Amino acid sequence: MGALKPWHIAVLVVVLILLFGAKRLPDAARSLGRSLRIIKAETKSLQDDDRDLAEKADAQSGYQPLPPQQQPYAQPQQQPVAPPVDPVQRVRDN
What is the pLDDT along the chain (94 residues), one digit of tens a residue? Predict the structure, then answer.
């Protein structure tokens, strides 16, 4: 039932000629071909852009960060902790 038969194509061609005229059909086909070429070129450029980004990501993934330099173990020095001072008391003292 879904098959396209030869008489379907003939009816389609006749309808197109009646709608557009015999003179405009070659121009319409030419512009359709140009449009398809443009779409194909844009699709290819998008694929190339994606491929370029993937190559850049692969190239950058080869870089390894330097390991942190380890310091010899040293005892942390504790600094004396001052007792908390009440700001209100400090103002009164001055």
Answer: 578 888 998 999 889 888 888 888 888 889 999 999 999 999 999 888 888 877 777 666 666 667 777 766 666 677 777 777 777 776 666 6
Q: Would you say the pTM of this structure is higher than 0.85?
A: no
Cα distance between residue 61 and residue 54, in whole Å: 10
The helix/strand/coil state of 82 is coil
Kindly report the backbone phi and psi dihedral angles of residue 84, in degrees, each rounded to the nearest multiple of 5, phi listed first. Answer: -65, 140
Q: How many CA atoms lie within 13 A of 31 on its CB side?
A: 4
CA separation for the pair 51, 44 (Å, rounded): 10
